[in-house]
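pipeline/complex-builder :: batch 7 item 3
reading input block
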Amino acid sequence: MTAIVAYPLLTALVTAFFKQSLVVPGRKFVGFDNIVDVLQGNFFQLFQQTMIFTLGTTILPFAIGFALALALNTRIRGANLMRGLMLIPWLVPGVVVSFLWMWIFNGNYGVMNALLAPLGVEPQAWLAQPGTAMWAVIIAKTWQSFPWIMVMLLAGLQTVPRELHEAAEMDGAGTVRRFFAITVPQLKGIIGLVLLLEFIWNFQHFDIIYVLTGGGPAGSTQTFATSVYETAFRGYDLGHAGALGLLWLILLMALVVVYVRFSEKGEER
Amino acid sequence: MSANFPTRPSLTRRGALQLFGLGAAATALGGCMPTSGGASPQGSAGLSGAGPTDFKFASWSLTEAAAAPALEQIIDGYEAKQGVKVAPTSFPYNEYINQLTLQIKGGQFTGAAHVDVAWLGSLAAMGKLQDLSSLAEGRGYTDAALAAARFDGVQYALPWTIGAIGLVSNAEMLQKVGVAPDGFPTTIDGFEKTLKDLKALGGGIIPYAASTKAAQLKDVLIWMQTFGSPLVDGDTVTIGDDASVEAVTWYKSLYDQGLISPDVDRFDARSLFSQGRAAIYDDAPVGRNAVTKESPDANLASKLNPVARPVLKQGDKPRALVWGGAIAVVDGDGAATAGDFAQFATSDLDTVLGDYAVRGLPPATAEALESDKVASDAFGSLFSERITATATTNPLWAFTSYSQVESEIANRVQAVLVGSAKPADAMKAAGEAAQKLVR
């Protein structure tokens, strides 16, 4: 634990207080200067963009995953096969997913423009416009993560006693009423857990954003994860990268506290 | 209700570990950095009578289908000659300098490394490159080539392919708008008019597949120089001056008119050009094989026409950027043999000519340049005459922080292109950021 967690973590925390380059040997103690610089720089823009990405990639796949889980929980033919096929996006490595969507969204020879052209939509540079790039990234990430949510919720749905639905149906409750009065309350725990875990994972997500847009155009899809990487490995500025990482870690720790509390409550129930 | 929960305990542990590990990784970017050391050359270069050993060789060209066979041929040749194994390492060009830097810094890479001469300052600053001056002697490298692979007076690399990046056009497409192969517009105004004529041909043609992705937006620097910006004056970065603002304003106008296209880097440009969707793009001679190999047009090679970059006003000298590949040696395991390999790959005549046949990049030795194979290459000769002849190095290369400076400028130019910033504000900010980095 000391070697794989404590040492790099403490060393990184210390780095936040030094002016230190990745390539030039030596470093100089600068106190809280790096942290102040980061807070006075684009920290709040990064926070906002990270939150947009995180919320988008949590809510959208949740909605799709839940809808599909409900559909697959019915007695439709081929449900098992469909369940297996729908897991494929989740099994594809993030970098491959990124290249796939990069091809789909390419402004010059992408599939999306080719599909939209017959509808009269002018070709768009989806990944190269601030207004569309974040949505493109969110869609790509959604495609990758909805199967996991679907499987988790489907597992939960299959534990809901069928008698509850039958009794409610006899009492005259319609589909929507049963959904909100029986299904959702029965799945409350698993829904909370899935949303929280997705939120935490997406808050620190890196690969799809970085491969698809590199944080661009003009920083419009930059998140904490990509910005730390850019600062350290393109800017070679370990001090500011460490400071940004430190602030990011503090925010993540707050999420950990929520997660632990949530897990404890679940166990108590 | 608890029955509805999945296996929470394992998720809890995994989630917490992952979170903690990634959080640590996020802030641990410099976890194992040394805190002292020098930036002078390391070790003694070459075999100097010692027996050859296995070593590593890094090159971005190994990731490029059109160029990789040339390097594989060189590696095979050296392995056969010395009876050693060469372990290849490769990263795509756009990621190469960062990955190589990390590997060198982390002690994971020693041996021979293919480098862009623009990166020598950044790599030399790490203090792990060998001085290869003893290996450069008596091998017939041209003075210009040796100078291109030198930084701060030290021969940090052996020059391999020293040429330039310039405009390459499709002669057939240009003829459709009345531009003859030797009648390419010489001024910016004429160039822009030709681009408009090309666009008017319709069919989704991108007149000029200029770089617009941040990874290759350094290409805009040569346009800044064309508009009269020196980029650097002494130790002062001049980006933000009137000429650089004017250049970026013009670039943005091309973008807004659809004369250049969003979402393009060098590799996209090659792809668009090879498919006949772009009429002009920026490249080094190495691009020739890439675009012709992938093209549905079997005659594209005969239509390739390198042209001089237009100037702001008649009488100005066309600008072109020196672009060179060199082999540096990172001190450590296998470095002695890596030095010998660098000399072999860059100056053994048969090896160099075999490489030229595949990559088409101008060699760095006088003997190879004068050989029939190189001298009789029409495209190569035209490229040298119209582009390389007036090529200059980028003055920003003189700074060890060049890579970061380039990123700062590229990101701000991209902000202008997508409408997030005004040219004057963005270039002022770019100049200030760059100045801070070179201080």
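note: The CA atoms of residues 270 and 286 of chain B lie 11 Å apart.
queue -> next item
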